[in-house]
Amino acid sequence: MEPAPHGGKLVNRQMSETERTRREGELGDLPQLVPFVDQIYDTEKIGIGAYSPLEGFMDSATLDSVLRAGRLPNGLPWTMPVLLPIPPATDPEIAARLQPGEEVALLDPGRRFLGLLHVTERFRYDKKALAQSVYGTTDPAHPNVQDLATAGEETLAGTVELAQRLALPRGRSEMTPAETRAAFAAKGWKNVAAYQCRNPPHTAHEYIQRLTLEREDVDGLLVHPVVGRLKKGDYRPEVILQAYEALLTHYYPADRVLLSPLTISMRYAGPKAALFLAIVRKNYGCGLYIVGRDQAGVGRFYAPTAAHRIFDEYDIGVTPLRYDESFFCRSCGWMASAKTCAHPPSDRIDTSQTRIRKALSDGGELPVELLRPEVAAILRGPDVLLTE
After folding, report:
1. What is the predicted pLDDT for the residue at 231?
2. Do residues 53 and 7 lie in contact, with contact meaning Cβ atoms separated by under 8 Å?
3. Set 23, 122, 181, 199: catalytic member
4. Lowest CB count within 10 Å: 94, 177, 358, 374, which one?
5. Is residue 56 classed exposed, middle or buried when 0-12, 13-18 and 19+ CB atoms within 10 A define those classes?
6. Active-site annotation holds for 256
7. Is residue 198 flagged as an active site residue?
8. What is the DSSP string of 276-303?
9. Tens digit of pLDDT for each residue in 238-247?
10. Domains assigned to the chain
11. Catalytic residue among 198, 281, 348, 372
12. Separation CA 276–CA 290 (nearest Å)
């Protein structure tokens, strides 16, 4: 059955068109803040209910509970901070006005009105303690720890009102949790599995998606690529979406799979990020969640199965579908895993993104054991990776 939103209620903090027009006319009277892009994405996700039950950015008591126990103060599992640090480049006169009781206009980098923050607290936070608790390291080689080093020293808490949705590249649209739930109902899907990804699909991805669709307890699959701020060397968002569109169009039944982007910044926190990403997909209406090898990991900071184990520590009302590493076996002639293949490691062909990127940079072949030809053609196009 479709799960209830996390905490029992789907949050909706979106202004009406009338209210947005009225509040836009009052912007000159309010302090205006341009948050870092991560918090711009988070503002929208709070507003549309993707982060239910959060209705705004966390206060100090909530942050302390999340870092200490992996739970909100009411005991509900929640493993990732959602904060609004004051950017260091903020005008000092504006920064001085960002105090409890104030309404703050949140703008995107183009000065477009994004929403309002009703400030309830302004506080300093311990960056090292946050990094150690969430990411398990204070090593600046970790991309999110690196982000923390340049973030503001103080953060704002308070509820959010979302004025308007973010614009996606190439005119694409992103479904809200209310919209995916309505789409599932229209399709007659009661049990939906979510697939988290941040790369174009290769054959190992397709393998576990197909295994999931074969399950009797799965009516449909939500392919939900993260296409917000990623990191240098990641694929560009439009490339990820084009690649998935090619795969789904050519190889999957249209009535079993739904594709929609998710604009959030990727948290590379391994198991804690995996649990957070599952909670988000629960809010979108998914009662099952695919957990692959080293999900939300980066480098060698997390054990390959750590994201599997965290679902034994926290019950979030979602069934984890745990999959081990898969590979193409020459002797089997198809994808397999250590659970299904008896052949020696020498028969196995690595299907990792590392190998795919090396083949692309070297101008080498992209064999069908790695990628569908329609996907390979997209990845051979110009300017497919982020360079900064």
Report:
1. 63
2. yes
3. 199
4. 358
5. buried
6. no
7. yes
8. HHHHHHHHTT-SEEEE-TTTT--TTSS-
9. 899 999 999 9
10. 17-167 (3.10.400.10), 170-379 (3.40.50.620)
11. 198
12. 13
